[in-house]
């Protein structure tokens, strides 16, 4: 598993007083990944689900093995991927992200490559990474910094959406109905 999202066991133990600052911190981390003067490469083995898709959306390059799968299962639990969607939409567009959220169905690595979730897919991800790093090591930090600043200006929606995404995330996880569904799943 690359990342399966939030720890439902932990979430099922939270009470109404929990303020869910994790959503804000996670969104901030994904923002940093998109803006920092470094190239973020994700190597995917196995499953990526829910919050894991936020890491994929914030990555500059995603390399996956053919057995990898990608999903947004939140709606099955009365949740929705409020903080993930801005990053995933940035990577693959609204309709594909919407389809993943609504259907909750996993997408194979092959489909993920076609949709742009994955940039490079093959049986030996170590070799894929090696080939990418041979090229990436030639890039200067200053060039990466300038490029990332410029490209984030082209798609400034992510920064603008942070407060609304975090607010929606807070509302979702504060719902007693949602916490009950999570607790039932855990049990």
Task: Write a concise synopsis of the structure shown.
This protein has 187 residues and is mainly alpha-helical. It has 10 helices and 6 strands; from the N terminus they run H-H-E-E-H-E-E-H-H-E-H-E-H-H-H-H.
General description of the model:
With 187 residues, this protein is mainly α. It has ten helices and six strands. Helices cover 57% and strands 10% of the residues. α4 crosses α5.
Based on DSSP secondary structure assignment, what is the total number of beta strands?
6
Structural Rg: 17 Å
Strand-and-helix sequence, N→C?
Answer: HHEEHEEHHEHEHHHH
Strand order of the largest sheet: 1-3-6
Q: pLDDT average, as an integer?
A: 89
What percent of the residues sit in helical stretches (DSSP H or I)? 55-70%
Supply the key terms.
mainly alpha; 3-stranded mixed sheet; 187 residues; globular; 6 strands
Helices, strands, pairings?
Elements lengths: L7 H5 L9 H14 L5 E4 L2 E3 L1 H8 L2 E4 L4 E3 L13 H8 L1 H10 L3 E2 H7 L4 E2 L3 H12 L4 H14 L2 H18 L1 H11 L1
Helix pairs in contact: 2-3, 2-9, 3-4, 4-5
């Amino acid at each position: 598993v690359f990342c399966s999202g939030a720890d439902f066991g932990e979430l099922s133990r939270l009470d109404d007083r929990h303020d869910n600052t994790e959503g804000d911190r996670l969104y901030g981390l994904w923002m940093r990944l998109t803006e920092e003067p470094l190239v973020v490469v994700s190597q995917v083995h196995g499953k990526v689900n829910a919050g894991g898709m936020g890491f994929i959306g914030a990555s500059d390059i995603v390399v996956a093995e053919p057995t990898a799968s990608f999903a947004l299962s939140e709606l099955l639990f009365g949740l929705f991927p409020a903080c993930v969607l801005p990053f995933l939409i940035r990577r693959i567009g609204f309709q594909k992200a919407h389809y993943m959220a609504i259907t909750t169905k996993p997408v194979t690595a092959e489909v993920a490559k076609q949709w742009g979730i994955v940039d490079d897919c093959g049986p030996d991800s170590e070799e894929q990474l090696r080939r990418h790093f041979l090229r990436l090591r030639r890039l200067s930090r200053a060039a990466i910094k300038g490029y990332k600043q410029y490209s984030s200006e082209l798609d400034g929606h992510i920064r603008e959406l942070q407060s609304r995404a975090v607010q929606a995330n807070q509302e979702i996880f504060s719902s007693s109905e949602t916490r009950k569904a999570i607790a039932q799943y855990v049990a």
